[in-house]
Amino acid sequence: MKLTPQEIAAAMGAEVVAEGEPGSPRRAVIASGDAGPGDLFFGLKGASRNGGEFAPAAIEAGAWGAVLDQQARQSLLPDEAQNLCRGGWVLVVEDALGGMQALARAYRRLLGARVVGVTGSVGKTSVKDISRALLPGRVHANRENLNTEIGLPLTILEAPEDTNLLVLEMAMRGKGQIAELAAIAEPEVAVITNVGPVHVELLGSVEAIAAAKAEILDDLPPGGTAVAPVEAGELEPHLERAPKLLRFGPGGDVEAREVNVVDGVTEASISTPLGTQTFHFPFIEAHNLTNALAAIAAGVALGADLAGMADRAASIGFSRFRGERLELPGGIVLVNDCYNANPVSMRAALDHLAGLGAERTVAVLGEMGELGPGSAGYHREVGEHARDAGVDFVIGVGLPARDYDPDELVADPDEAAELLAQRLEPGDAVLVKGSRSAGLEAVAEQLPELVAAEQG
Fold first, then answer.
1. Superfamily name with CATH number, domain 324-455
2. pTM attached to this predicted model
3. 405-410: long-range contacts (C-beta < 8 A, 24 or more apart)?
């Protein structure tokens, strides 16, 4: 993080309480247990504790410095305050989170890297993963789910100094949050994957969700570009605010033609305003082809070379729990897609399961969270979609999953794993999907050993 201590303090509006070694910190951390030599510890205020109380422990562990607010500073015992000021830079701010966000913005500007911001109800993590692989230069992107008001600045602050491009996924749980993240990231390209009934419980309607997602458009520079689907739905009225607009999907500026799926690879001729190029993608899911179109559209907005993007397509890899495909004994295929779930992503996953050409298809479905008063209806519609798609057997996990009208309803993931191991047959394909609160990763983790034991 090539900023001097004085530049760091100025960016945050911090008071320098103690000075440490010259030079710059290597990264930012928010857990004192993670702090070590070269780290800048931020003591964030939590629901029950102020993280600044752990600043002395971070400095004692060798941290380059610590940032805490006045409340935490005043709560330290005299010996703690003395220890805090012996060995590292100590910076006091009005709000530690606000200070971290301001520092991230300053560091991003110092990097001079171009920025692609990615948000949307479904597919934003996959679009981020695909963009990270396809786009040119030294690309830095969010790890795991570091996509919030805390995770996004941490992502920026860990970017290597030779980063050319930041691909930043932006999560949203309420009005104003995307605007907050966009003000830190200052994207040149804003990708909105889609808008659907996700977080309806918090925002009240799909229209309100669209308005919240569209906040990313307001921080685009005059020459910036918005990337949006052809069928934008409730997002459509907001797109007129974009300086430039690229559409992806059938009939759009970036679309797939002559699509063939062979031996786990999707071959597609991609038409763009920069020309047409054949891509070979290491996946077979139709929804991931749509995600790839969004990523390619971001590349087009940046003026990236199509042939270069096509060459890098083989390196595409996805974050954990997102459509992971595992081969179990007996030729059973397990699709582990349990990172999260909502009506849009659930339908796409069920369509993919039904299209695998397996002897029999089984869906293990947990609750879809945060759907508000219409939750039971959304679950019912997904259950109907599973049958319309041709899924042979549905297992619901947890009481809310009863609204899928499953063939079997079990109490928890452990029971689901045991039932699956007993019922699965050679050649079956099984999908495991639900919101993180359903804990269905336990099914995917237990199943290989249980199936082996059943067949052994």
1. Mur ligase, C-terminal domain (3.90.190.20)
2. 0.79
3. 405/380, 406/365
Contact call for residues 427 and 451 (beta carbons, < 8 A): no
Buried b (16+ CB within 10 A) or exposed e, 72-103: bbeebeeeebebbbebbbbbbbebbbebbbbb
CATH number of 5-94: 3.40.1390.10
Q: What is the pLDDT of residue 146?
A: 87
Tens-digit pLDDT profile for residues 260-311: 998 889 999 999 999 999 999 988 888 899 999 999 999 999 999 999 999 9
What pLDDT, on a 0 to 100 scale, did the predictor assign at position 153? Answer: 96
244-267: pLDDT as tens digits: 999 999 999 999 999 999 888 999
Token output for 385: 């979609």
Tell me the C-alpha distance between 237 and 219, whole Å.
Answer: 17
pLDDT at residue number 456: 59
CA geometry: angle 335, 340, 346, nearest 5 deg: 65
- C-alpha dist (Å) from residue 364 to 22, 328, 346, 352, 410: 55, 16, 11, 14, 10
Q: How far apart are CA 188 and CA 302, in angstroms?
A: 9
Residues 127 and 291 sit within 8 Å (Cβ to Cβ): yes
pLDDT band of residue 447 (cuts 50, 70, 90) is confident
- Domain 112-315 fold: UDP-N-acetylmuramoyl-L-alanine:D-glutamate ligase (3.40.1190)
Q: What is the C-alpha to C-alpha distance for residues 165 and 129, in angstroms, rounded to an integer?
A: 13
185, 191, 195, 201 alpha-carbon torsion, rounded to 10°: -20
DSSP 68: E
The pairing of beta strand 139-141 with beta strand 189-192: unpaired
